[in-house]
Amino acid sequence: MTPPPKWYKPVAVVALLWNLLGCAAYLHDVRISPEDLAQMSAAQQAMYNSRPAWGVAASAFAVWFGAAGSLGLLLRQWWALPVLGISLLGVLAQDVGILVLSDGTEVGAAMWVLQGLVLAGAVALLFLARTARSRGWIA
Questions:
Q1: What is the pTM of this model?
Q2: Coil, strand or helix: which one is 40?
Q3: How many domains does the chain divide into?
Q4: Alpha-carbon distances, residue 93 vs 17, 55, 114, 138 (angstroms)
Q5: Domain for residue 1, yes or no?
Q6: Local confidence band at 104 (pLDDT 50, 70, 90 cut-offs)
Q7: Cα–Cα distance between 62 and 27 in angstroms, integer?
């Protein structure tokens, strides 16, 4: 195995923390109380209630596989690449469920920006894992 550059470990740590935040957000989302839901705007409530179950499941795949893949990067394990690939597929399916089928336009630009950042992060992590694998940083 080839030693990775000095920036590799801090990036892997940030990736893991980012995905763990996603896990916490997912858990908060699926455990939301009726009282909390009632405090949302009508557009947010409509979007929350119209999400398909497979879209919520895709969110779980996105964050949990993202956290596992980021841990794999940190531990320099070969399986980080396929696991982060599954995470990216989860992000893509989540985006379809949230922004296309749930009419995410009603919530506003913030949702589009946030989902764009999540997608960009997932693509970047997959690219990092692919680069790390090809350069021998993970094995």
A1: 0.87
A2: coil
A3: 1
A4: 22, 6, 15, 28
A5: no
A6: low
A7: 13
